[in-house]
Design a protein that fits this description.
Layout: E1 4-6, H1 9-22, E2 31-36, E3 41-42, E4 45-46, E5 49-53, H2 56-66, E6 74-79, H3 80-85, H4 88-100, E7 102-107, E8 110-115, H5 124-129, H6 136-158
Parallel strand pairs: 2-6
Antiparallel strand pairs: 1-2, 3-4, 5-6, 7-8
Helix pairs in contact: 1-4
Length: 159
């Protein structure tokens, strides 16, 4: 079984809605969205999503999917267990957070694509948007970690 799988159309539709509302500079940027089907831990914390800038290798292999010579500029992976076990508001929060990492600047010779670091442990604008639930990522992270632990325990019992 492959680690990554394509997201359903609903995730792409949500991303488009978020781009139109919060990230108009990303509307024409080609972003591939994937589910990560395995637990990913970084710095001791569960990784719920990740935005990566593509390199020339990935761009080469994605030109057929984007129907142009450039391929994808970014790949955003979302933890599938998280997606399947959280509500729509949290899905939007997670995806909006990952989209915020996509940073674009324009020069005379074209666009420069970068990964924006966190302002703090989050983005200031995301803290403002999530004032009603400031610990959303910790809440989701704990839920996903518990589910992975339960799955591992069940797999152990089946052996």
């Amino acid at each position: 079984m492959l680690r990554f799988e394509n997201v359903p159309e609903s995730v792409i539709n949500l991303a488009t809605t978020l781009q139109e509302k919060h990230f108009v500079e990303l509307i024409d940027v080609k972003i591939k969205y994937l589910f990560d089907t395995k637990r990913n831990v970084s710095g001791g914390k569960i990784c719920l999503g990740r935005c990566r800038k593509t390199d020339d290798f990935i761009k080469y292999f994605s030109t057929g999917e984007t129907n142009d010579d450039e391929g994808y500029q970014y790949v955003i992976t979302l933890d599938k267990v998280a997606h399947d076990n959280i509500g729509d508001d949290d899905r939007a929060r997670l995806l909006r957070h990952e989209l915020r990492h996509a940073s674009i600047s324009e020069r005379d010779d074209g666009f420069i694509y970068r990964i924006a670091p966190h302002d703090i442990e989050d983005f200031v604008s995301e803290i403002e948007l999530n004032a009603d639930d400031p610990r959303w990522s910790m809440r989701i992270g704990q839920l996903v970690e518990d589910i992975y632990d339960q799955q591992a325990e069940m797999a152990k019992e089946q052996k």
